[in-house]
Amino acid sequence: MKKLIFVNLSFVLVLSWASAQQKSSTTAPSIIFLIGDGMGISQISAGHYLGGENSVFSIFDKIGLIRTHSKTNKVTDSAAASTAFATGQKTYNRAIGVDIDSNKVANLVEVLKTYSYSTGLVSISSITHGTPAGFYAHVKDRDAQEDIAQQLTKSGVDYFSGGGLKFFNQRADKIDLIKDLKANNYYVDTVQDYSLKLAKNKKYGFLLAEDGMSMVAEERKDFLANSLRQGLQYLTDKNAPFFVMAEGSYIDWAGHRKDPEMMLNEQWDFEKAVKVAIEYVDKHPNTLLIVTGDHETGGVSVQKGKTIEEVIVTFSGDQHTAVMLPVFAYGPHAEKFTGMYENTDIFHKILSVVKGKKK
Ligand code: MG
Ligand code: ZN
């Protein structure tokens, strides 16, 4: 009698284990893609040696390297780099979502919609700036930020937050894009209450500055980590796989300014967002996290200081550089992101994950 019960129980256990396995392998993973704009291995090293605690990057054991050159330049800009990630095409510098002949190329927001993914974008700069724009817009030149804003209102992006309000409500054509966003089921605000639970049947657009947001050392505080966390919660509540891109935009700006203090503050701020994403993946195992940069900025080095204990951050220039960048991956299919490859391969690898392909 006892034996019979045992057999029945284990049979039930095997069945439920099998259906759980099936479920996890048939549900496409959600994807968190974090870009440190201007973040190379030196910025990460500086963050580590001057941070006083273990680098958040220590958790990754699937690491690759990308070549970042654009179609026209050995040294890319953020627009061509973003287009490479979001469309799988190398293009000319300043291009957003168009190829070398200025033809539109489908981006991740558009492609993933056909796989029923929800989408989110978080940026410290204007949401119409080069890096975020590459994921949803198509313009010949990144400076067309009013056009980019208009395309965002029709993009179907479920959640976005960042700066750029003036490209929506103080436009040369006088069109009020805030009205258009609301007509397209968006809740729009110029402040963000991170404690609010967002309604899953609404879309959200937070435009928190006229143009780029302030420095982290000023009033911006933990916007990037908090807004990413709130976005992740909202996208999770929608009960569909999602893709979210969040950008630490000002590591780059610090490089252009050759400002070591700003660089470190922005690097650490970005790392807080990486931490939020790692914690999310640990709680939601069917999520793939990818962290990389679009190019390095400033030719940063970490050099010997006055004492053997001390290191200092130095800049060899104030422009982007062509050095290869690390790619860190965590979660299902992370192994696909090891090796040395092109920035455009990020797009193809993401798609292969979405389609559930082995390679
Ligand atoms: Mg950027
Ligand atoms: Zn830059």
Fold and architecture overview:
The structure is a single chain. With about 350 residues, the protein is an alpha/beta fold. The chain has a single domain, classed as Alkaline Phosphatase, subunit A, CATH 3.40.720.10. It contains 13 helices and 13 strands. Strands 1, 2, 3, 4, 5, 6, 7, 8, 11, 12 and 13 form an 11-stranded mixed beta sheet that branches. Helix 3 packs parallel to helix 13 and helix 10 runs parallel beside helix 12. The longest helix is centred in the first third of the chain and has 25 residues. The N terminus is likely disordered. The structure holds magnesium ion (MG) and zinc ion.
Short description:
With about 350 residues, the protein is an alpha/beta fold.
CATH topology term: Alkaline Phosphatase, subunit A
The tally of helices reads 13
User: Distance N terminus to C terminus?
Assistant: 50 Å
Total number of domains: 1
Number of extended strands: 13
CATH superfamily placement: Alkaline Phosphatase, subunit A
The helicity comes to 25-40%
Layout of SSEs?
Elements: H1 2-26, E1 30-38, H2 41-49, E2 62-67, H3 78-87, H4 108-113, E3 118-126, H5 130-133, H6 145-155, E4 159-163, H7 166-169, H8 177-183, E5 186-189, E6 203-207, H9 216-220, H10 223-237, E7 242-248, H11 250-257, H12 260-283, E8 287-297, E9 300-304, E10 311-315, E11 320-321, E12 325-330, E13 339-342, H13 344-354
Parallel strand pairs: 1-7, 1-8, 2-13, 3-4, 3-7, 4-6, 5-6
Antiparallel strand pairs: 2-12, 8-11, 8-12, 9-10
Helix pairs in contact: 2-12, 3-13, 6-8, 10-12, 11-12
Bound molecules: magnesium ion (MG) and zinc ion (ZN).
The site of zinc ion has 6 residues, from helix 11.
